[in-house]
Amino acid sequence: MRITHKILCRIFTNHSWKCVATFLCLAMCCARVFAFEISSEMSEAVAPTTQIVAAQNIFAKNVLAHNAPAQDANPPLVEPVNAAADFKPAATPTAAPARHWFNSEKTALFLWIVFIGAAVTVSVWLAKSGRPIRIRRIAALEAVDNAVGRATEMGRSILFVPGIQDMDNIQTVAGLTMLGRVAKTAAEYDATIEVPTCRSLVMEAARDTVRASYLSAGRADGFSADRITYITDDQFGYVAHVVGSMVREKPATCFYMGCFFAESLIFAETGNAIGAIQIAGTAESSQLPFFVAACDYTLIGEEFFAASAYLSGEPAQLGTLRGQDVGKFAVVVLIALGVLASTILVMAPNAAAAVWFLYVLQKVLGG
Amino acid sequence: MKRIIPMWIAIIGGFAMMLSSFVPLAESAGEMFADVFNVVAAIAFVLGAGSLAKQHLEKLSRRDAGWGYSVITLGSFLITLFIGMLKIGIHPNPSFPQAAYSGSNDAEGSAWSWIYEYMITPLTSTMFALLAFFVASAAFRAFRAKNTEAILLLVTAFIVLLGRTFAGVVLTGWFPDWASGLRLENLSIYVMQVFNTAGNRAIMIGIALGVAATGLRILFGIDRSWLGGGDA
Predict the structure, then answer these.
(1) R_g (Cα) of chain B, nearest Å
(2) Is A163 exposed, middle or buried (CB count within 10 Å of its CB: 0-12, 13-18, 19+)?
(3) Angstrom distance (rounded) from CA A173 to CA B10
(4) What are the chain A neighbours of B23 within 8 Å (beta carbons)?
(5) Residue A15, SS3?
(6) Which helix (H) or strand (E) holds A271?
(7) Helix, strand and coil percent figures for chain A, each rounded to 5
(8) Which of A138, A295, A322, B139 makes the best surface tag, with the fewest CB within 10 Å?
(9) Structural domain boundaries of chain B?
């Protein structure tokens, strides 16, 4: 067993495993791209054949439909179709549908994105030019340093749970940005941080994030990749591991930052039972009440996404929060206009108000 | 370089996904990036499995407390892996009877399906069932009437809880028609449709704007903390 362990550890620590994975990854990506191109060509090549088959099917169906009443006493379920009218020779060239270069149904959404992008860009530029930006105090983020300090004083670890979704979820990305900040503080305080992950890709991303944080804190020797582990993709298998390790190791501080579902309350209640300071953040509105009930601090919705910018204190990042607020103001104005138009529609129904209200509702708000 | 390349991959991929939503001609590019992500995630599973094996083998070799559970974990992992890869108990797909491994792992009666149905499902259901007790303990703590806000929360919770059960109908069903709005079932609907929906929508609007701002921060390379922070 010991020999097997040594061999496996050697394999895993020699990075050859990573090289194999990288090679496989590149090979599969290339294969996928080629397959995509080949399938496109194939589909174009077989298109006339498909058309012929379809024409033959219509012809056969119509012939059968004409013959069926003579042989079958039951009335046909499908009305006979005029074969001459429906049948088109396969060789006849058909007009190809033209593809628009822009999806006009999403114009309102596109304009919204442009507006918010412009607001963010202008705010960043203003912030960089030295204009002061006032950001309201967020208690949960103010408590991060204290929570990490508490773990250091107690000589216990910090638990960071980055949610149960993969890297294609923006909440997981936001959770990892938060992990970068927490890991840097932990490195400065010489505290231990444990990160169990539910996805392999998140594990790799979290390792890189924590490694870079330790490097930027000047404590590269304190980083250990073994503290950032992959558990399982299974939701409740992951919960069983995390809750079990919480009960056994009793971390002093627990962070839950990312996308959570039914496991949110199990984590938060277990953390509460072991007396840990708990800071949670998620954009899953259905899970927010559970975190609010069981955690000491909760980042609600937009606060969770603002966390990274808030903690960095960099003018450029704080400027994006200002841009976000401009977008929020625009939404408030639109809501007020919608309420006004709706009221006018009820009080004095006339065509102009109705058209305006319906336009705002359907086109701008997407109702 | 280790930060610049991932950052540019994120920027190009992000803009491609955004474009694919608005430009029909770029839809295939968006699908291709999604496929590449799936491939990378699938390959990363090799690293995950390696991490899992190393973690438990170390625990075993050190004879840490609870090393017996590591034996069970590794044993279960290997058994499930081999059963899945060798497709034990799976008949070939009727469309390809000559190909021995053409059957699906999900096929009824297969060993893999048996493991899933009779081992994984009961275990996950057990974990899920614990949630009921945690809800009770969290509700007990949240509903303690410590201050005005907590009292409001408690009263609202009781209205909704009673209004959504027969108890609400039994208690207030005798109210006359002119006071039907005060019946618990109607009050419950009112609370959920007006107060709850308004609050929920406010949070959702904030989340949407937060997602947009975070996406733009990453796409513009302003926020690099997911790469460990600092300059690229």
Answers:
(1) 27
(2) buried
(3) 11
(4) 101-103
(5) coil
(6) helix A263-273
(7) 65, 5, 25
(8) B139
(9) 1-86, 90-132, 143-232
CA A332 to chain B, closest CA, distance in angstroms equals 10
Does the distance separating the beta carbons of A283 and B135 come in below 8 Å? no
Q: How far apart are CA B190 and CA A203, in angstroms?
A: 45
Each residue of A313-322: b (16+ CB within 10 Å) or e?
Answer: ebbbbbbbbb
Q: What values do phi and psi take at B142, rounded to 5?
A: -70, -30
How far off is chain A from B131, nearest CA to CA, in Å? 6
Contacts of B184 (CB under 8 A, 6+ apart): B159, B162, B163, B168, B169, B171, B172
The amino acid that residue A184 corresponds to is K
Residue A237 to residue B56: CA distance in whole angstroms: 15
3-state secondary structure of A338: helix
- Distance from chain centroid for Cα B43: 21
Half-sphere exposure of B189 (CA within 13 A, CB side): 7
Q: Could you give the ipTM of this predicted complex? A: 0.89
Residues 6+ apart with CB under 8 A from B109: B89
Give the nearest partner residue to A5 out of B50, B61, B223, using CB atoms. Answer: B61
Residue A300: phi and psi, rounded to 5, are -95, 120
Q: Are strands A253-257 and A158-161 parallel, antiparallel or unpaired?
A: parallel
Q: State phi, psi for A256 to the nearest 5 degrees.
A: -120, 100
Tokens at residue A299, please?
């980042």
* Distance between CA atoms of residues B162 and B186, nearest Å: 11
| Cross-chain Cβ contact B43/A24 below 8 Å | yes
Residue located via tokens 């708990």: A278
Alpha-helix runs per DSSP H in chain B = 4-22, 27-62, 67-86, 111-115, 121-142, 148-163, 166-172, 184-190, 197-219
Tokens of B231: 């300059």
Residue A115 one-letter amino acid: F
User: Could you tell me the sign of the dihedral formed by the alpha carbons of A171, A175, A176, A181, in that order?
Assistant: positive
Query: Degrees (nearest 5) of the Cα angle A287, A289, A291?
Result: 75
Give A79's contacts (C-beta < 8 A, 6+ positions apart): none
Comparing A245 with A345, the larger pLDDT belongs to A245
Q: How many CB atoms lie within 10 A of CB A257?
A: 25
Percent of chain B at pLDDT exceeding 90 = 49
Q: Considering the entire predicted model, what is its pTM?
A: 0.80
Interface check B138 vs A, CB under 8 A: yes
Residue A62 pLDDT level (bands cut at 50, 70, 90): very low
State residue A56's pLDDT score: 44
Intra-chain end-to-end CA distance of chain B, in Å: 8
Query: Which stretches does DSSP call E strand in chain A?
Result: 158-161, 193-197, 228-230, 253-257, 277-282, 297-300
Helix (H) or strand (E) holding A229: strand A228-230
Is the pLDDT at A203 greater than 70, yes or no? yes
Confidence band for A364, pLDDT divided at 50, 70 and 90: low
CB A208 within 8 A of CB A229: no
CATH code linked to domain A139-312: 3.40.50
